[in-house]
Structures are given as C-alpha cells and as structure tokens.
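Hi X.,

You mentioned you wanted examples for the new student's onboarding notes, showing what a folding record looks like when two proteins sit in one file. Here is a clean example. The first protein comes first, with its sequence line followed by its structure tokens.
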Amino acid sequence: MRGRFPRSTSVARLDQTPFPADITDLTHDGRGVARLPDGKAVFIAGALPGEKVVAVRTARHKSFDEARTVEVVAASPERVQPRCGHFGTCGGCALQHFDEARQIGAKQRVLMDNLERIGHVTPKSVLEPLVDAAWGYRRKGRLSVRRVEKKGKTLVGFREADPRFVADIAQCHTVIPAIGERFGVIAALVDSLDGRREIPQIEFIAGDDAIALTFRHLAPLSDGDRAKLAAFGREQGFSIYLQPGGIDSVHPLEADEPKLAFRLPAWDVELKFRPLDFIQVNAGLNQHMIQRTLDLLQPQPDERVLDLFAGLGNFTLPIARFAREVVGVEGDAGLVRRARENITHNGFANVEFHAADLAKDLSGEPWMRESFDKLLLDPPRSGADFVLAHLSLKQFKRIVYVSCHPASLARDAGFLVNEKGWTLKAAGVMDMFPHTAHVESIAVFEPR
C-alpha cells in the first residue's frame, strides 16, 4: 500500500560501518533510541535505555535510521540473558533481554506517552499493571511453514525479524509447553509428507482439555499424508484439522470432533470455540483482565450493558452474572453463532447477541435504538472511533475500553474527553504478551 511505510535505502547501498550510540529511550516496538551526531534519530534493535552500544545500520529513512546492536559496551542493570538462544533472530519476541519486572513498566510508559501525545489526555489515576505467567502462556498462534532446500528440511515456527524467513527453532518458551516443546517434532512430521511444499501455515489453539492444530494446505493431501497426520494427532494428543480453502473450509481430519472450550471458574462460565476463532492468548491474564473490567464497569442488577466487539462472549457472559441484561455485538457472524451457543450452553436468559459491522452505519440496527446504562468496548487494533462517533453517548454512566493498541485507544480517548466532555478516570496496562512489545491496556471513562 502506498504511503504506509517510509521509503528506505537498500541494504546493499547502506554504510554499514559500526558506530557508537548512547541509548536514551525505548520505542513502542522495543528498540533502543539514540541520536546520531547530526541529530537524526536511530532505532536500534537489541539495545536498552542507559546503554552504550556499537550498532550497524539496517535501513535508512528520511527522518530516522534503523540499526541492530553488534556489541554492548556498557550494559543496563536491567539487561538479562535471554532464555531463548534464537532471540534476536526469531521475530516472536522483542524484549527477552529486558528484565521481566521492567518490561511492564516500559509498556505503561508507552501507554501514557500515547495518551498525552496523541490524545492530549491524562488519566486521573494510573492503574496497577496486570501480570501473570511470563513463560509458556501462549495458547493460540500461527506457525509459518517453509521447505528450505539448502538446509534439506522443513522449518516450522514464527517468522524471523526479517519476515521473509522462518526461524529455524525446535522449541519456543513463550508458547504453551504442549506446543512450544514440539516445534521440531511438528516440523519433522511436515517434512515427511508428500505435500510438504503445499502447507504454508499451521494454526494452534488450546482449550482446557484439547489442543487443535489446523493445517492449511494449497492442494489436496494424499491418503498417505492424511494417515500420517491422523497417527501424529493420536500419538501426540492433538486434534488435527484441515483447511483446504477459506475459514469456512476448516474441518476435523477424523470424524470425532473434540470439545474445544475454556472455563472461567470465577463466573461459572465455559466458552466453546472453533479452531480459528479469536480467544485471548494468555489464559491466566485473561481472567485477571475480566475481573478488572468488572471492577471498573461495576454492572448493577438493574442495569443494561452494551458490549461491543464482543467475540465469543469473553466479557459478556461474566458481566451477565451481575447486570439485568447484556447485549453483545460482534462483526464476525461465526463468532456470533458460537456466542449464542455459549448463552445456551451456560444457561443464560439475560444475554443476547447481534451481528453487525461496527465500522459501518449502524442507524438501522435495532439495538442502536435501545437504551443502555454502561458500555464496554474491546475493539481490534483500528480502535472504536467510528462507533463512538455514532453512538448516543449521553445514555451511558460509564465506559470501559479494553485496547490491544495504545495509539488507537489514545485517539479515541482524546475524542471522548476533548470533544464529548468525558473524563478519563483511570488507565493502565496488562501484560497479555510478555517478552513482546505488544501493549494491552484498559481505561475507564465517566461523564463530567
């Protein structure tokens, strides 16, 4: 897409002479910030604030350069030895060299900087960061697959920092051990298949009692390959799914389809899902996040709550334990079907779900003409600017906004505070993705 990325000088024409740099800050994506003698900013992978490093350029742009660390001359006391030997090559993590306890503080600073710089707002109070297990937490993800003839094998893993390549790793420490310790085993399986060049990706997702692997394949699989996949699933305890086309083509390899679900015991809720559905990747942090959402939203027995971008009902059903009625709205029709099934599965009588594209005109939607007391938002990275601009905000006593992208939260917070007269009561971060630069956050607004 034109204009999306700044034009850069090719690596072949770059001056790659090593240069010294004093690191003064950290970028939103986990790189160190330094200034060249002419004042130009340079973002240096593998460097931390307070360090002196030697770096080489990897890209040159008009307003900034990019580089990578080749030597740490003076290390920060917050630098630690990365657990994974592939850190710096694999693009899955950006912060393994940064002390775990300090990572979340850096993410909090990213949020506050975005709120001030983009939204021109400051919260009345800053929430204590939410954290959970820092390793073996990731229960959903997409693995890239590539047959590399020069290495004589098939690679299965995350993309490298250079996304043209797949990282050659046998184990991932951030993925749940049942998957993370079997990257090499999965790669060997794919390499044994006749159709190994026709499988570009494998998606994994874990419920409480079952783990599904979905193999995307660009050509029909042979009977022999199907037999190998089935045997692998039985031996390793995985449920194998195939995806020959779009999302609707996903189906179990064998007749018996497992129950994919996770429980939220504090609210006596169990959410069923399909292999490619969206679920929060960090199960422990997800439960902390739901509790904080409830604490901030404070749903009451006489209140109606509107939950936008509701997904499977991750927040909707716990809220329904406390509110008179909850209406969930989600753009993905498949998720809405599963959410309705989850209503029945959990025996709720005070919840309803609607399918609607929340980035389009909603004036014809029946739920838009109803009245509500409180609003919960959990939008994608693009944020909730369109729907906020079209909602009747005066009806709400409180808005809680769960965000996976601090810049869009900051923009929407600026709209609510500076244009609509709301107050940003509190905001804070949640470490959904430890060791990555991903910032999950939450904010609560009240009318003035």
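Then the second protein repeats the pattern, sequence line and then tokens:
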Amino acid sequence: MTSIPNREGTAPVTSAQRILVLNSGSSSVKYQLLDMRDSSRLAVGLVERIGEQTSRLVHSPLTDGGEKREHTGPIADHEAALKAVAEELARDGLGLDSPELAAIGHRVVHGGLKFSAPTVITDEVMAEIERLVPVAPLHNPANITGIRTAQALRPDLPQVAVFDTAFHTTMPESAARYAIDVETADAHRIRRYGFHGTSHAFVSRETAKLLGKDPSEVNVIVLHLGNGASATAVRGGACVDTSMGLTPLEGLVMGTRSGDIDPAVTFHLERVAGMSSDEIDVLLNKKSGLVGLCGDNDMREIRRRIDEGDQRALLAFEIYIHRLKKYIGAYYAVLGRVDAVVFTAGVGENAAPVRAAAVEGLEELGLVVDADLNAVRSDAARLISPGYARVAVAVVPTDEELEIARQTYALVNA
C-alpha cells in the first residue's frame, strides 16, 4: 500500500468506498456513514445526553429494509457512545471493521491558522488542536474526545480532521485582523477566524453549479442562518470576509447569541451591574439574540407571534433583518461585484419571510425576490429571483456531512 504526503502526516491510498463522519459535541455524537461512489447515505444517527441516565441513541439505517431504532438509558462517556454506534452499524452489516470503510472524518471546530485543508490526524496534529482549546473551549475538547475514541476503536484506519475554520484562512489580513495592539493580538491569537466554513464552502460551490459556472468565476454572499448564523463573502471560490470572529459570538443576530455589540457593554455590566465575566459570557452567548429580545429563538414561533400582533416578536424580527441587511450591503461593497446572494441552513432554507425581508428595498443593488418562487418549499437548490434580476437570489440546502466526507475521501485517495 502506497502513501500520499499531507501537510501534517500521511494517508494510505485505498480502494474502500465508505466514509464515517463524526461530529462530537460536549454531550453528543452525530454520525453519518456514506458511500462515496454515489454520495449516498447508508446510515445516520445521534447519541445525545452522554453521561446522563437519560442518554438516547437514535440510529437510522438507510439501506433497503432498515428500520429506525431508538435506545434510552445511561451511556457513560464518548467511548461508550461510539461503541454503541459501532454495534448499531454492525447490526446492519455496516460495522467499523468493514474493509469497505476507507476513513473516519471528524468535524473539528477550530484549526487556527495552521490548518487550511483536511488533515490526517497525527500526534502533532492532536497537540495543535489541544493548543487551540483556549480559543474554542466549548468545542475542541469534545472534538478531541471523539477523535481519541475513534482512534482506539480503529487504530489502523486513517482519521481525518476537517476544520470549520479552514475555509476562512484565505481572508486577507485587512479582514482578519482586529484593530488592537499587534503584539497583544499575536501573543494571544486574537483575530477573526470565522466558523461554519464547511457549510460556506459547500454552499458557495453548489451555488456556482446552480448558476452553471465554475466557482472561480463567481462572487457569492452566503448567509448561513440557523440557531447560529454567519455571513461570508466568497470571491472566486475563496473566502475574503466572514461575520464570525475570534469566537462564534460576533456578527449576525442569532438564536441565543447577541452578534455584534459594543465591547464596552461588558465593562459597563461589570461596573454597573456587578456581573462577572462568566455571567456576561452566559448572557451574550445563551440569553441574547432572538431569545433575549422576545423569549423565543424558533423563527416559526416568532412569525406566528407576529401574525397575532405581538410587538415584541416583531421588533426582534426587525432587528434580526436589519443586521442581515447590513452584512449583505457590507459584503456587496467588499466584493464589488456580486453574482448571487444565497440562503442556507435551517432558517435560511425554510423561512420565506426572512428571505423576502432581507432583500426588500435592495432593488438598486439588483436584488429581487419572486414571491411565488420564494414561497415554494423544496429540498432542492433553487433560484428565488426573477429571470430579469441582475443578482441571483438562491436557496441552497447545506450538507456539512457530505462536505466532510468528500474532503476526507479526496485526501485518502489523492
């Protein structure tokens, strides 16, 4: 078996066709098994509430005759969770010991500046992911646990890290640096890293395909709108600016995160309200955004309340849209020429009122939404702008798992 070089290690070339994608959170593991011959899913599942008595595993084999299975009961840790996943896959003839399994692809939230591409996981790579824990304390530790557990289960199999931040490493310094003392910033790795990069990469390429062009020919503003939300300006297939920063807190109004805010608010709350840094952290990350404004972070519920005349819900929606428009306008200016504005993720793909409101009044920029096209519910990538529009407006469902699988498979078969 030959080996191919990679920036951090080597990966064996393989004729196996399956990729297992793992997304390990602090108390959960999401997984998908894909056949890369046709990008089909063989199984999907979730283990949640790991470490609790009420742990839950939901497994759905997608092969012929497979039936969804659900188990509840204590699952002590990630090792036990992944062993349970392996057992479920084995019941469907899709076990981790299968010679068809080419590699395991891991979602890793923070790769800093070092990792700009999918990377075979070595001891050196693990050490760097651990060094980045201070800038991703909620995410990287869980990612590390998932990797180590998978390595223990299949030490012979290539394990590949696909980083949320990687797509954004192409940002110029003028976009990535904050205007603070350079030595302080460099000493503490303070800069804009951006997140949701796997989604932005996938969606920007799919948008180019929808337009019948090569990604290198297209300038796109991607709006990833879920409970977490981010905007990215993509020029010729490369990120040139993104709304999230050192952490996922910066940028758009989100479900529970404030997004952009005057940093002096934190000092004010310390001095006037006597709040600790931890309390302010919780406020801005978990008690702000839509939930802080109106008590709900579900856009469907907010729209229902608006229809019933709820003024607090209406104000929350208007603040959300105002911030969204500001980023569309800003990134239009950054790109100079825009071929498409594209909506993705849970809110972006399903909330027609958000899409309509976000581009309303931007006709001078060439942005128009066709009401009938916008009202259509579909899982397909589609245009929602009329044929005469100067700038396309599109809805493109994101698929981060498929993107991780593609990057992983390409690396181990390069």
